[in-house]
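Why do we bother with holo predictions? Because pocket geometry can differ from the apo form. Keep that in mind while you read this record for magnesium ion.
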Amino acid sequence: MAKKVKQIAIYGKGGIGKSTTTSNISAALSVMGYKVMQFGCDPKSDSTNTLRGGEYIPTVLDTLRESPRINAHDVIFAGFNGIHCVEAGGPAPGVGCAGRGIITAVQLFKQQKIFEELDLDYVIYDVLGDVVCGGFAVPVREGIAEHVFTVSSADFMAIYAANNLFKGIHKYSNAGGALLGGVIANSINAPYSKEIIDDFVRRTKTQVMEYVPRSVTVTQSELQGKTTIEAAPDSHQAKIYRELARKIDEHEVSRVPAPMEVGELREWAAKWGEQLVAMESGILPPQAVGNL
Ligand code: ADP
Ligand code: MG
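The structure, written out:
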């Protein structure tokens, strides 16, 4: 019997570190011996850059625009350690649904039975998720991905985007949609960012998969067009990415999250804000800052 490919989607607001984190997870899983495809679903089309020496690859949508009948292999490019790299691409700026590329690419691969042919263990979708609408909702709504993870820092806008994703997952959960694996906490260095994320996941009934610090090793690797797993495998940061990949590999049961209502979320963030200001101005001792 053919093995089942594990499909994972990684969401998060723009610029939060999705592609960096996803590429390091892909790299770590491939070093563990798995056959991996990384599927960029951001119209920016730079998801797989650090798996390909900083190079951009032609997108599925661009390739289709040139010739409507293509072979799926024309849009799959080999990256670090044999990782299969794909960029769904976006519409011409200002025209059409930005999620169109995902729908088109997924259909193409299904028709041509590419996952089976390549004997993949993992397909990892890197999806822009400020708003879970149209095409961007596809991996969740259609249940294409089995597990969804979200990258978030402790900043309000990142948490707001994560909470919106939870709403989308909640909404489609009765209709065979994907479920939530957990939060990947990124750029966790600032004081109390860990406490804020911990409180958020407790409130929304999910979990933190890993705390990933902000690190210059990531910047240096990126400047070489590489993941940290490739450029600095002995670094502390690479160790954290390997640990995250191991947890994702061992993860089996995802759940329906409990998103906060907008008013509730604002109130929650405002209380954290007040506490942090009080602490910075010395009114509140640091040890008094905690769960609200
Ligand atoms: P996204 O895919 O969510 O838009 P990127 O992965 O492209 O975001 O990251 C945006 C920028 O932040 C990149 O320059 C990346 O190197 C940097 N970055 C992300 N995570 C980290 C980290 N943990 N440490 C240092 N820099 C990071
Ligand atoms: Mg990206």
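Residues 18-19, 42, 44, 46-47 surround magnesium ion (ligand 2) (CB under 6 Å).
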